[in-house]
């Protein structure tokens, strides 16, 4: 038998929190996934779980949740959790130690490393999934008391170009608008955002505005996504060419009398240079269209719509930020809003959609290596101010290394000690194979995490610290619209897990900084954070929480969602920025930006002539350490894949369902091909969610080049030159098992959880009889087999004593994936007697309507059910599907896919 596989989709039975809080009323908290920051009501069930509902009073979601938020109750089990500090002993084995031992060792080692190699030999790599209080504590310890600004975060991979873009244009990292603008806009432009899948509750707000006031939706993305499908106008931009589209728009606005001359004159600088540059980049409509790869008609339609619609919000996300020219893209977008004065007014403005639940909080505390704290940078005045406020003995006086540089410095031996907190860089950083090597090379690696195993934890840490997870941790997060919400605990801490801020504080105290780290709880840290934002501020800095500086613990506990700025106690602040100018630049004017010509396709070579785009799928979160635990979320897209255009595929002999190798000069993945009309020729899309814990070769970070943007240091994650080839492993198949079983693995595999079933997709060189039987041990006495060696076919079904299916394996000589939907449906059938067991081996479901891809995760509605209804009800609508099958009636995240099905198109682009 193979050893149980660690990681998100584990194999042990359920382990739950200690009972507690029985009969407790619902606890108001915030969803731990995306930056929409939805309010959640969690009602503990007293058995370690909780019922989850949307908080009707939260201003981000007014009670709505998407499929991920709605499934949070399924992710509270402890089976994959890290519950005790672990230390690596002399034999390289992790063994349990007490917190005191662990914390003493960190303090001792950091001090010794700094003594020997200087403060910059120590680094922290943090996460937008930490609470603001954790983030503040880490930043204060490192930058103020250890003297190293080598503190960066996974937000470098996520928001850094927006931060740099804001600072270049506004002089500060300010998001000017609020969510209400999406309700009030007449035009919403989504650039590089798959909001239908990644910010679903905001997308529902946009859809509601479309229904209510006829808001138009334009989507700009090289890939026709579920979001693009919903658009009134879809612009399939060539990768990286957004700057051209928005430069062309600036020219159009100037030539068609759509400028707000008064706003430009009164509140901005640099317009003439920006316009001249835009004219160079987009000398004519035809040129802009050709460079961007869209038709002149479509581009003109977009420009007209923009010019004629005063209320326009341009939302952008990773198709803009994760780009070697991301900061310029942000600048080109902001230029068009400044030029029309459409900023900070109801229903208009540029709007960066943040990714992680606390991406914004991280920016507020200075989680990035080039920020100090409270939106201050490393200018001499700010260094002096923060030093005095913290009474810091060795404040870092220059910017630290940004994520990619930081890992280069680790590889080069300049950084000796690293503390990773709340992120999985061995998966998520570009050149991830090099990152793993670098991590293994460290003299001292500490990892604070919720889980006992992930790819980063596989890189030989010296210490592992168990952190409180969502539902246990307590503090604040800030969402995309600057709204600070409490995340509150509703479960008791399991094992010896502790808050991240507590571990940092304890290390600081051991280093002799008791007074500066004297906090008793999260409320104390928040109050200090607010006080720093207020310190010598007087309106000079956007981030201002003066009104929250005297929150005592009880008022912190009951703090309602609160938007910043809060310059006054009591008084409600204005919620938008910049309608009347007053930017945070030295002259108070916004700066127009003159972008560089984007160079993306130039990176391709003869041997690597396709561009690899990466991103997210609807129902998984990042490396699946939490969302992978949910039975219903796994069913949506269970297999790691590469989306290809059919013409590209045909040229390479690739069929839908073939295995393909996607390879760059840095590394490769082997995943399943999906041919997809929404994919531009010359491009491939691979999702980011698979790691070594869930697949043998699906970790796409190893392929990514990650060329950094010159201003933000954010790596390009959307356009890596790659080559593709078909991988012919003659035997393909799957092993489905009840989730408490171990299954054998073969050459290539990927693992998913589909309902109560663990699905291992398999491909191998060798015929199954050579490895399968051996790997499985003795099949039970009830097993049925079908072995046809000449046809290369092997099928097996095994049953427990009561006749319930416990395992089904189908392996065959086949160039494509075997359909598992029929066999999967047998797991839901009642125990079957010996006479019917052989039927399973036919591959058909017991009940023809069962099985199939789950489209609606909330109500478990599968594609065949929908298709059956479509047949019996011609003219069926989304509403009709809702009435009859409940599909799409809860979170609505699947509505774009329902529409596709009703239009006779394949689901899930
Ligand atoms: N389901 C789900 N939701 C999530 C997350 C998750 O893991 N799963 N993660 C959260 C986080 S941290 C983040 S950062 C956000 C990300 O949210 P999004 O940015 O919406 O998601 P991505 O899939 O990374 O990329 C968005 C789109 O950018 C497009 N794109 C690629 N290159 C270009 C280009 O050159 N120009 C343009 N215009 N578009 C381009 C891609 O094709 C893709 O459709 O999602 C958050 N929400
Ligand atoms: N190719 C490519 N790469 C990408 C992206 C892409 O689009 N393409 N997107 C990038 C983006 S935008 C992002 S945000 C990153 C995300 O990438 P990661 O941050 O690496 O992904 P996660 O799976 O969210 O990892 C979070 C880890 O922190 C743990 N954790 C969660 N909460 C806490 C906590 O409170 N305390 C502690 N100590 N641990 C906690 C979880 O168990 C998990 O192991 O990926 C980036 N990488
Ligand atoms: S949109 Fe979904 S994932 Fe994002 S915060 Fe809301 S419920 Fe959570
Ligand atoms: Mo992100």
UniProtKB/TrEMBL annotation:
Cofactor(s) of this protein: [4Fe-4S] cluster; Mo-bis(molybdopterin guanine dinucleotide)
Listed GO MF terms: 4 iron, 4 sulfur cluster binding; metal ion binding; molybdopterin cofactor binding; oxidoreductase activity
4Fe-4S Mo/W bis-MGD-type domain location: 24-80
A GO cellular component annotation in the UniProt record: oxidoreductase complex
PROSITE patterns, per the entry: 4FE4S_MOW_BIS_MGD, MOLYBDOPTERIN_PROK_1
Keywords: 4Fe-4S, Iron, Iron-sulfur, Metal-binding, Molybdenum, Nitrate assimilation, Oxidoreductase
InterPro entries: Asp_de-COase-like_dom_sf, BFD-like_2Fe2S-bd_dom, BFD-like_2Fe2S-bd_dom_sf, CT_Nitrate-R-NapA-like, MoPterin_dinucl-bd_dom, Mopterin_OxRdtase, Mopterin_OxRdtase_4Fe-4S_dom, MopterinOxRdtase_cofactor_BS
An annotated GO BP: cellular respiration
PANTHER family for this protein: NADPH-FE(3+) OXIDOREDUCTASE SUBUNIT ALPHA, RESPIRATORY NITRATE REDUCTASE
Family: Belongs to the prokaryotic molybdopterin-containing oxidoreductase family. NasA/NapA/NarB subfamily.
Listed name of the protein: Nitrate reductase
Species classification: Bacteria, Pseudomonadati, Pseudomonadota, Alphaproteobacteria, Hyphomicrobiales
């Amino acid at each position: 038998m193979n050893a149980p596989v660690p990681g998100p989709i584990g194999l042990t039975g359920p382990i739950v929190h200690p009972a507690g809080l029985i009969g407790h009323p619902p606890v108001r908290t915030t969803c731990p996934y995306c930056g929409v920051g939805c309010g959640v009501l969690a009602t503990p069930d007293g058995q370690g779980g909780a019922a989850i509902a949307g908080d009707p009073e939260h201003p981000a979601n007014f009670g709505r949740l998407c499929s991920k938020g709605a499934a949070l109750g399924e992710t509270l089990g402890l089976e994959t959790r890290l519950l005790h500090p672990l230390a690596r002993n002399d034999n390289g084995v992790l063994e349990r130690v007490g917190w005191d031992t662990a914390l003493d060792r960190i303090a001792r080692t950091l001090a010794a490393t700094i003594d020997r190699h200087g403060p910059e030999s120590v680094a922290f790599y943090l996460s937008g999934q930490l609470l603001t209080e954790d983030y503040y504590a880490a930043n204060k310890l490192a930058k103020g008391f250890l003297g190293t600004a080598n503190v960066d975060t996974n937000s470098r991979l996520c928001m850094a170009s927006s931060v740099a873009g804001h600072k270049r244009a506004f002089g500060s990292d300010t998001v000017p608008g609020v969510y209400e603008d999406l309700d009030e806009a007449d035009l919403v432009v989504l650039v590089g955002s798959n909001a239908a899948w990644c910010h679903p509750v905001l997308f529902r707000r946009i859809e509601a505005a479309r229904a209510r006031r006829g808001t138009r939706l334009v989507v700009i993305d090289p890939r026709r996504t579920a979001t693009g499908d919903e658009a009134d106008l879809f612009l399939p931009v060539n990768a990286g060419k957004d700057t051209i589209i928005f430069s062309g728009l600036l020219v159009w606005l100037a030539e068609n009398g759509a400028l707000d001359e008064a706003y430009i004159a009164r509140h901005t600088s640099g317009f003439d240079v920006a316009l001249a540059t835009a004219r160079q980049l987009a000398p004519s409509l035809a040129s802009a269209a050709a460079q961007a790869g869209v038709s002149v008609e479509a581009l003109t339609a977009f420009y007209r719509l923009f010019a004629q619609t005063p209320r326009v919000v341009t939302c952008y996300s990773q198709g803009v930020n994760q780009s070697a020219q991301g900061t310029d893209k942000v600048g080109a977008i902001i230029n068009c809003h400044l030029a029309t004065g459409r900023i900070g007014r109801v229903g208009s403005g540029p709007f960066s959609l943040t990714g992680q639940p606390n991406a914004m909080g991280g920016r507020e505390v200075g989680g990035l290596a080039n920020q100090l704290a409270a939106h201050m940078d490393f200018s001499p005045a700010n260094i002096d101010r923060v030093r005095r406020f913290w009474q810091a003995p060795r404040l870092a006086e220059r910017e630290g290394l940004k994520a990619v540089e930081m890992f280069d410095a680790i590889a080069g031996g300049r950084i000796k000690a690293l503390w990773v907190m709340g992120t999985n860089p061995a998966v998520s950083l570009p050149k991830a194979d090099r990152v793993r090597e670098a991590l293994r090379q460290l003299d001292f690696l500490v990892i604070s995490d919720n889980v006992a195993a992930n790819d980063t934890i596989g890189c030989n840490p010296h210490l592992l610290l168990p952190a409180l997870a969502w539902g246990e941790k307590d503090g604040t997060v800030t969402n995309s619209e600057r709204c600070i919400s409490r995340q509150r605990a509703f479960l008791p801490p399991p094992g010896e897990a502790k808050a991240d801020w507590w571990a940092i504080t304890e290390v600081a105290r051991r280093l002799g900084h008791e007074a500066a780290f004297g906090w008793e709880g999260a409320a104390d840290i928040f109050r200090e954070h607010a006080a720093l934002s207020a310190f010598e501020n007087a309106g000079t800095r956007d981030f201002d929480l003066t009104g929250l500086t005297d929150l005592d613990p009880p008022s912190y506990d009951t703090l309602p969602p609160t938007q910043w700025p809060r310059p006054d106690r009591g008084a409600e602040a204005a919620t938008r920025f910049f309608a009347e100018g007053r930017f945070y630049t030295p002259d108070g004017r916004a700066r127009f930006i003159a972008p560089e010509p984007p160079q993306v396709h130039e990176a391709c070579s003869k041997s690597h002539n396709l561009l690899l785009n990466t991103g997210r799928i609807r129902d998984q979160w990042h490396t699946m350490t939490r969302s992978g635990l949910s039975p219903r979320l796994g069913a949506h897209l269970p297999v790691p894949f590469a989306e290809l255009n059919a013409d590209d595929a045909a040229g390479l002999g690739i069929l839908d369902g073939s295995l393909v190798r996607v390879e760059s000069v840095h590394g490769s993945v082997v995943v399943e091909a999906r041919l997809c009309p929404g994919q531009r020729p010359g491009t491939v899309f691979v999702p980011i969610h698979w790691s070594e814990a869930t697949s043998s070769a699906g970790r796409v970070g190893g392929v990514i080049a990650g060329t950094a943007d010159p201003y933000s240091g954010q790596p390009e994650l959307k356009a890596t030159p790659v080559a593709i080839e078909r991988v012919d492993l003659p035997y393909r198949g799957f092993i489905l098992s009840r989730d408490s079983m171990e299954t054998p693995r073969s050459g290539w595999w990927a693992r998913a959880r589909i309902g109560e079933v663990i699905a291992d997709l398999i491909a191998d060189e060798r015929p199954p009889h050579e490895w399968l039987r051996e790997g499985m041990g003795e099949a039970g006495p009830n097993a049925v087999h079908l072995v046809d060696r000449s046809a290369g076919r092997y099928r097996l079904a095994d049953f427990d004593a009561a006749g319930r299916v416990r395992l089904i394996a189908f392996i065959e000589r086949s160039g494509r994936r075997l359909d598992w939907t029929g066999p999967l449906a047998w797991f839901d059938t009642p125990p079957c007697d010996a006479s019917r067991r052989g039927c399973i081996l036919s591959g058909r479901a017991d009940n023809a309507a069962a099985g199939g891809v789950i489209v609606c995760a909330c109500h478990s509605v599968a594609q065949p059910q929908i298709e059956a209804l479509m047949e019996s009800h011609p003219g069926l609508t989304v509403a009709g599907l809702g009435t009859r099958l409940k599909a799409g009636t809860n979170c609505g995240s699947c509505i774009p896919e329902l529409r596709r099905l009703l239009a006779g198109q394949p689901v899930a682009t």
